[in-house]
Design brief:
Largest interface: A-B, 129 and 95 residues
Number of strands of chain A: 29
Strand content of chain A: 15-25%
Distance between the termini of chain B: 53 Å
Strand order of the largest sheet of chain B: 2-1-3-4
Structural class of chain A: alpha/beta
Radius of gyration of chain A: 30 Å
Number of helices of chain A: 16
Oligomer: heterodimer
Number of helices of chain B: 6
Distance between the termini of chain A: 70 Å
Order of helices and strands of chain B: EHEHEHEHHEEHEEE
Number of strands of chain B: 9
Helix content of chain B: 25-40%
Structural class of chain B: alpha/beta
Shape of chain A: globular
Radius of gyration of chain B: 24 Å
Largest sheet of chain A: 5 strands, parallel
Shape of chain B: elongated
Strand content of chain B: 15-25%
Largest sheet of chain B: 4 strands, parallel
């Protein structure tokens, strides 16, 4: 930790949050808000004189409320940067200055109530997202009585209680009477592996964390009775099984079965009812203290950052990697990487391993000093351009300039163009060609697909980032769906030109599906808004000329929604079955007259 | 090995394309529900297809060697690889064709695994028919492909690390020690994250900070 604070190449911004990310791989522009600390962190020596005179006492977050701190405080003794800070909401002296005792005693004069939040702009080539986790809050699992009984603790609270730097200096006591407990119970999978509450997934660390805790208890207090209530003990890592068997040898009891209820007795101990799966009998255990092995949830900032950077999440809410095995630390967006629990629950060793891998991946991109860009960009066919300005209006990157007044044709800045193809789809004069996804290439696919028995087939367009990836995910999950679905991959659903759809219907397609990223998740900022508008426009036209609008479907399917993809395909087939050969012939007849 | 392949660039695609088609078995991943040899045979007669083969593992070293040799022997100027998802192996096959002088953008992949064999596992006939259509579509696409050249842009050799827990710290240090500038952004007043709250850690029971 201290290495980070000292490193000449690391700029450390604490109390800071990323609020905006623009640009692309190699050239990201990041806006960061650094909140006021009210203490100059470069001159503060963390002597603590200020905190000694501060009259405001508050629960200490670092010790999860088991200890106290002042309104001016250092988060914990080894904090980096090693500087105090003021919580301005708690401080009396901030405005108006009624207290300011800390200012008076600070020899270095580093307290400044007038400090304000700073906006910092950083230009970077790569980004590593290591936003971590938030421990599962067991309040909703009322049967364990976490909010009702003071001697029911979470595993992190217990950790602070037996931690040498914690509020009791590692002395294990019961919160209610400050006596040594004679028995401690642990309940596993709190908020994990549950379809009911918390998450469906295994939180990875709780088994080993509990085993570690039993070890600490038995090491210091061999007479304390330790009971662990579990479903399975997952001790799969190097050295894990050994620690588990040592814990058993030291006398910790492992009881298979999760308690159904917890009640408090008169002396504020806890009576736990559990069906022991080994004996099949209902057992009651009296314990002085109960620890809930809380699982992991994604950090609260995950969703906000996901939106800012256009990343994807798994159904569990953690970040989705580009490929689960071959690109486990890459985001689908080039130049962004994941490390630690941001990507999924993991322990310290795995987090460190993944962090080094992410650093390596970032270096691999940056070491050449330049970045190669995909030539998948739009090209203006100048002689066809009428300088209407539509392309420049729809471009999410402001990469196209058109001088509408002077009737000067459009110009594309290909470095800024990211290749969504929305401009090409929206141009009414066919004056924009999209490299690698030209009209001829896509129509070639549509036509060849519908060459034989078109009435039996479903034509689907899918964006490469979300829906096509969702289809791949359905494949990896072996989800079965009707075999008449044929996907055409485009970079963005914004590329799906009206004429592709009409062409499909003209060639006899019973159903056409356009699919892309969910609104707000588009890889091209908001290009899929134009998809939505376009489909609405086509629906209206279909109605007007006498085509059933249901035959054109729009569905948002994310990369993690394999199930949704398969279900959508089944729904498409149901719609297709309602369309008769006569209806298709009638459609072709109508369209041929237009 | 360098060989210049004459590629005529016209708006409607090449008039005389020479296409190579490879239908990958992926071991049994594709071959168990798709008759790969049959697919390769069916498309053999299509316009412009000069080679059409099924292949056990297209991505393997011998698989790539065979394709590369075919490209050289038959003056193939565009390739269809019918195998797994392009999201997995597109870079592999782009590099492969480039190494024998074919522009990497003159290659297309038909997704016969994630979007065919794995999702229609018990319908061999239908899956094979779909595979034929997918390869047919891919051939239509490669006929229209045009060579493209990748561009290079300057970059900022600096990394933003979001989050100062154990993962963020490790990543920042590895980068900085390798000579890259790092900005480490942490929401709370100190770095350390959850790790800082923990004293002993499993399995070695040593301290975390």
């Amino acid at each position: 930790m201290t290495d980070v604070g000292r490193h000449p190449r690391i700029q450390l911004l604490t109390l800071s949050e990323v609020v905006d990310v623009k640009g692309y791989v190699g050239n990201f522009k990041v806006k960061i808000i650094k909140k006021a600390r009210y203490v100059d962190e470069t001159s503060c020596t963390a002597c603590g004189d200020c905190a000694n005179v501060c009259p405001v006492v508050r629960p200490d977050e670092f010790n999860i409320g088991l200890g106290s701190r002042k309104a001016i405080f250092s988060p914990f003794p080894q904090a980096v940067p090693s500087a105090f800070l003021i919580n301005s909401k708690e401080c009396l002296g901030h405005n108006p200055a009624v207290c300011s005792k800390c200012v008076e005693v600070c020899a270095k004069k580093c307290i400044n109530f007038h400090m304000s939040d700073e906006e910092i702009i950083e230009e970077v080539g790569t980004i590593i997202v290591a936003t971590g986790l938030t421990p599962y809050d067991p309040t909703e699992l009322d049967e364990y009585g976490y909010t009702r009984f003071d001697n029911v603790l979470t595993s992190l609270e217990f950790e602070r209680l037996v931690n040498a730097s914690g509020p009791t200096k590692g002395n294990l006591i019961r919160p209610t009477d400050r006596k040594h407990p004679k028995s401690v119970g642990f309940i596993q999978c709190v908020g994990s592996r549950s379809a009911r509450k918390g998450g469906l997934y295994c939180s990875n660390i709780c088994c080993m964390n509990t085993i570690k805790s039993t070890f600490i208890i038995k090491e210091h207090y061999p007479d304390v009775e330790v009971k662990v209530f579990y479903i399975d003990i997952r001790a799969f890592g190097k050295g894990f099984e050994d620690l588990y068997s040592r814990s058993r040898r030291m006398g910790a009891q492992y009881i298979r079965g999760l308690p159904g209820s917890v009640e408090e007795t008169d002396d504020r101990s806890l009576r736990v009812a559990v069906e022991n799966a080994a004996t099949g009998k209902l057992e009651f255990h009296e314990l002085d203290m109960l620890v809930l092995a809380q699982g992991m949830k994604p950090a609260p900032s995950t969703q906000r950052l996901q939106e800012i950077m256009g990343l994807q999440l798994t159904p569990d809410g953690f970040y989705l990697e580009a490929h689960p095995k071959l690109q486990p630390v890459d985001a689908a967006t080039r130049g962004i990487f994941f490390a630690g629990c941001a990507e999924g629950p993991k322990d310290i060793k795995e987090s460190v391993t993944q962090a080094s891998a992410a650093a390596m991946r970032a270096i691999r991109l940056m070491c050449k000093g330049e970045i190669t860009t995909e030539p998948i960009t739009s090209v203006i066919i100048t002689e066809k351009c009428k300088a209407c300005g539509k392309c420049s209006e729809v471009c999410p990157y402001n990469a196209i300039t058109v001088e509408v007044k002077n009737k000067k044709p459009a110009v594309v800045n290909s470095a800024a163009c990211s290749g969504c193809g929305t401009c090409s789809a929206e141009c009414r004069f066919d004056a924009i060609s999209m490299n690698h996804f030209t009209d001829a290439q896509i129509m070639g696919q549509v036509d060849s697909m519908l060459e034989t028995a078109p009435e039996t087939k479903i034509l689907a367009f899918a964006c490469t980032w979300c829906s096509y990836a969702g289809a791949d995910y359905a494949g990896v999950s072996r989800l079965q769906y009707p075999p008449n679905v044929h996907l055409i991959r485009v970079m963005c659903s914004g590329r799906v030109d009206e004429k592709f759809i009409w062409d499909g219907f003209r060639k006899g397609a019973p159903v056409v599906l356009v699919s892309g990223c969910h609104i707000g998740d588009c890889h091209y900022i908001d290009a899929n808004h134009w998809t939505e508008k376009r489909v609405a426009r086509i629906h209206k036209k279909m109605e007007k000329i006498g085509l059933r609008p249901e035959r054109l479907q729009l569905e948002w399917i994310s990369a993690a929604e394999g199930i949704r993809f398969a279900e959508t395909m089944k729904r498409m087939e149901k719609i297709r079955q309602t369309i008769t050969a006569e209806e298709i012939a009638e459609t072709q007849n109508i369209l041929s007259k237009l | 090995m360098s060989k210049s392949i004459p590629v005529k660039q016209t708006a409607t695609g090449d008039q005389n394309p020479r296409i190579g088609v490879y239908v990958c078995h992926c071991g049994l991943n594709i071959a168990q529900s798709v008759d790969c040899a049959h697919v390769a045979q069916t498309v053999e007669q299509e316009d412009g297809v000069v080679v059409s083969k099924d292949i056990v593992y297209a991505c393997s070293e011998p698989g790539q060697q065979q394709i590369k040799q075919d490209i050289l022997d038959n003056d193939i100027d565009r390739v269809v690889i019918a195998s797994c998802s392009p999201r997995l192996h597109e870079p592999t096959f782009k590099k492969m064709v480039e190494s024998v002088g074919v522009n990497p953008y003159m290659m297309d992949m038909a997704n016969l695994r994630e979007q065919c064999s794995w999702v229609h596992m018990h319908e061999r006939e239908e899956a094979t028919l779909k595979a034929e259509t997918l390869v047919h579509m891919s051939i239509a696409r490669v006929r229209q492909l045009e060579p493209l050249i990748e561009d290079t842009l300057p970059l900022t050799a600096k990394t933003l690390v979001i989050g100062g827990g154990v993962a963020g710290i490790q990543a920042a240090l590895d980068l900085a020690d390798s000579g890259y500038d790092v900005t480490l952004v942490e929401k709370s007043p100190s770095i350390g994250g959850v790790m800082a709250q923990i004293d002993k850690t499993f399995p070695t029971m040593d301290c975390s900070i």
